[in-house]
Structure formats: C-alpha cells, structure tokens
Amino acid sequence: MNETLLAAVQMKKIFPDGKTFVDCIPKFRADEIERKFTALKNKEGFDLKKFVEENFIAPVNHTSSFVPDTQKAVSENIERLWQYLTRKPDISNGTLIGLPNHYIVPGGRFGEIYYWDSYFTMLGLKENNRWDLIESMVKNFAYLLDTLGYIPNGNRTYFSGRSQPPFFAPMVELLAQNKGEVTYKTFLPQLEKEYDFWMKGRELLNEKQNTWARVVLMPDGEILNRYWDENNTPRLESYREDVELSEHSSQNKNELFRHLRAGAESGWDFSSRWFKNENDFGSIHTTDIIPIDLNCLLFNLENVLSKSYALTGNTSRSNFFIQLAENRKAALQKYCWNETANFYFDYDFVAARQKTIFSLAGLAPLFFKVAGQVQATKVATIVEQRFLKPGGLVASLVESGQQWDAPNGWAPLHWLSVVGLENYGFHKLAKEIVHRWLQLIEDVFRRTGKLMEKYNVINTTLEAGGGEYQGQDGFGWTNGVYLAMKKKFS
After folding, report:
1. Which terminal residue of the chain has fewer beta carbons within 10 Å of its beta carbon, N or C?
2. Is residue 259 scored above 80 in pLDDT?
3. C-alpha pair distances (Å), 210 with each of 49, 251, 285, 297, 323
4. Does 224 have pLDDT greater than 90?
5. Catalytic one among 346, 405, 453, 473?
C-alpha cells in the first residue's frame, strides 16, 4: 500500500479509528490503486473519502450482530458469544495473514487473533470444554512460529516486526491438561523457536555492545530481556497518533517510534510504566526498560523447555534450561525487587536504576513463582492497601490518561494477580478481588448487554477510558477470565 495514500487517509481522519483503513481489503492490486491515487490526488475536486470507498472494502464488526439476553446469566451469554468471535481457517487477504485452523478474535475493532489475549480466552474455552478450539489456536501459533520464526502481535502484516508477551508456553501447559504430556514433546520445536526469537543476538553481547534486539547484557553478566520492534517508523494502524505525538516530543522521531512500537509489543499500550515522566506520553522509553513480567514469562518458558526436554530423555538439554531459569530468577530478584517499597518494579538499565511505578506487572513473580514467601506477603499487603478498589484491581497507581493505568482494570491482570496470590496462600484476598471484579462485569452487562475489554474499577458507574480508541466489547479475554474465575471460586 502506498504510504502517501496511507498518510493522506490517516492524517485526514477519513475513518475515526486509524485501524479501520489498514484492515480494509483492496478491490484492486495495490500498485494499481497507487497509480490511480498519484494521478488523481492533486486534481481539483478530488474526494479522498470517495476514492477509498471505490477502491477498498471496509471491515465488518461481527460482534455487532450479537443480541445479548441480560435476563440470563453472563456465563450463558458468553457461551453463545463464542460463535460470533470464532473465525474459520482463511487465506491471506489484504493485511490479514491467513491461518490454517479455527481461532477466536477479541471482538469489536479487533477482527484478528491476538497473541497474549488468546491465552486468557483459552481459560474460558476450557470451562466450556472447547478443547478443539484451544488446540486449533495453539496449532495456529505453532504455524506462525514455523513460517515467520515468531508469533506476531496479531495475524496482520502491519504487525510484522513485533510480538507480544510470550504466552505460548502457558498455552502448551494448558493444552497438556487435556492432551497429556505428549503435548510438550509435540510443540517442543516451536517452544525452542519462541525462545530463540526472544534471545536472538545473545551471542553478540559484550561490554561494548550490551543490547541486541530484545536481549540486554546486565552489569554483572546476566542476560535479561526487553520489548523491541524491528521497525522505527509510525505504526500503520496508529499512524496519525504517532506522527502527532512526534511533533510534541523532544525525542528523535525514529527513537520515539521504536519506543511506541515496543510499547505495543508489551500489550500494555500504553502505560506510565514506559514513561520517564509518568504524565508525559512523549517521554516514552520502552526499549530502555527490563520489564518484570516479560522476564517472568521467559523464566517460565525456560522451565517449560526444561520439562519438554526431560520428557524426550535429553537430560543435558533439560539441565541447561533449568540453569538458565535459575540465573534469570536470581537476576530478577537482584534488579527488580525493592526491599524498601516491598514490591517488584521494572528496571531502567540505561539509567541503572529501578522504575518507580507501582503496577500489577509486579504480581507476575507471584504467578510464575519467582517470589519468596516473605516477598509475596509484602506484595499482597500492597495489593490490598493500594490496588484494591470497589470494582477490583487498578492496573497501576497512576492516573496518566493512558488505558493501562488507573482507573482501569483488565481481565488478564486480574487473573495473574489472583492466581499469584493463591499460589502463596492469600486465599481470602484473592476471593475478595474475584468477588468485586465479577460483580462489576455482571453489573455492566446488565446495564449495557456488553462484555468489555476493560473496566473502570474505581468508579464502577463509569466506562473505562484512555487510550487511542473507544472501549471495545466482545470480549475474548474478559469472557475467558470470567468463566475461569466463576469455576475456580464457585
């Protein structure tokens, strides 16, 4: 697609949501549309909106046809919703990357599969005994690892160059609950590819070159990870927002765009976690940061690889990954635990100091069992005293106007937090969080007939806000976590 056409459409806001245009399907060959646009764009009376309508097919919001029944239980509505969120195997078309098996999309503006969303969606599919869909989705991610070498943010070409939080290993663990331990051996090649993607360039690190893509050499020789993107240009789906931010930021534009893209890879797009100044979006510096949750996920991946190799009888390879996991765990305790604040924080390796934003990412060490019991107790106290609100847990303690900060609460963060607290025996607190969160979801559903992407947990009568787009409904991970929590705490 011609960037000049893209820039014109996005900057003139032909569609209220910039994602709409890049999801459109071209009616003609891209070079043909490009030639027509170049020939017509400067002519008097040229109508850009009409040109787009004549040359592209707009995407369809499939969940808009879902008719809720607010008199019935939320769980019954979710079970009916799955069919509206299910996509059949498809071929590549426009920016869509075809996948060989059925899959679930989040809903609303999101008409493609998303990497980390899918794990939390699978939790609900499990409760509805839809192991067929879980297996299909895991196979789709394995297919992407085999064909692209990594799992992109979503199955769109404009997501090329970045992934999302690496939940492929937890997906394999989930599927193994139904298919047995053979699952680990089946997907071992793809687990290895996932690890190689995140660790790419580790052999190139030295004192003069302490970063390469997603790997960072720490001062005492440890290797930890950061979020990254292969590109340093505006995101096509948020082109106008990125360009406008660059005009108000003091940062070099290409560096800013890389930080924005890396923030999108984190799934927390966007949060004060990634800012030098918690209220200044233009100060984003994602690639300078060692995120606590990303490295806990990679700790888990190392453990799953160790288990997978043990099941194949390869003891030396199994021991190799166990050692890597132990090294990472020690490094996380060293760089991310704060004994004074009694919490886990991200680490700014460029400034050589911890970040100071309290966020639910600090619960990842509890979910993946990196924390010690004493540390978990201190974290639980902070959660109860500072994060717990009438509708559940706030994503962070900062109100920055970004969607991954207060006053918003998110299903995936609630699941990680509740399971993390359960892992260390804080059952009463976990149950109270679940009660408030499920009550909020049910209240909003009765009021609106919708299951939302995110919720305002501070003022439960208001919609969640912030971010680059309107609140979306559907909604994959909310559905999944709701059903899983209902089962776990009923």
Report:
1. C
2. yes
3. 48, 22, 17, 22, 22
4. yes
5. 453
Cα separation, 330 vs 417, in Å, equals 21
Measure Cα distances from 221 to 92, 215, 268, 484 in Å.
Answer: 43, 12, 28, 40
Task: Tell which residue, 140, 115, 135, has the closest CA to residue 125.
Answer: 135
pLDDT value, residue 252? 98
Residue 463: pLDDT band with limits 50, 70, 90: confident
Distance CA 358, CA 393 (A): 12
Q: Which residue has the tokens 């008097």?
A: 44
CA 469 centroid distance within chain: 16
Q: Which of these three, 62, 90, 106, is where a domain ends? A: 62
The domain of 57 spans 3-62
Tens digit of each residue's pLDDT (9 = 90 or more) over 395-436: 999 999 999 999 999 999 999 999 999 999 999 999 999 999
Whether cis (ω within 30° of 0) applies to the bond prior to 159 is: no
Give the distance, in angstroms, between the CA of residue 257 and the centroid of all CA atoms in the same chain.
18
> Is residue 163 one of the residues assigned to a domain?
no
Provide the pLDDT for residue 3.
64
Total domains in the fold of the chain: 2
Catalytic residue among 194, 237, 242, 269: 269
453 is catalytic: yes
- Dihedral sign for Cα 241, 247, 248, 253, please: positive
Q: How confident is the model at residue 234 (pLDDT cuts 50, 70, 90)?
A: very high
Q: Is residue 385 part of a domain?
A: yes
- 98, 143 contact by CB (below 8 A): no
Cα separation, 408 vs 459, in Å, equals 9
Active-site annotation holds for 196: no
For Cα atoms 153, 156, 157, give the angle at the middle one, nearest 5 degrees: 105
Q: What 3-state class would DSSP assign to 248?
A: helix
Last residue of a domain, one of 62, 88, 109: 62
Share of the chain above pLDDT 90, in %: 94
The separation between the first and the last C-alpha atoms of the chain, rounded to the nearest angstrom, is 51
Residue 26 in any domain: the answer is yes
Of the pLDDT bands very low, low, confident and very high (cuts 50, 70, 90), residue 489 is confident
pLDDT tens digit string along 147-175?
A: 999 999 999 999 999 999 999 999 999 99
> CA–CA separation, 244 vs 165, rounded Å?
27
Q: Residue 428: inside a domain, yes or no?
A: yes
Please, how many CA atoms are within 13 Å of residue 378, restricted to the half-sphere of its CB? Answer: 15
**Mean pLDDT for the chain overall:** 96
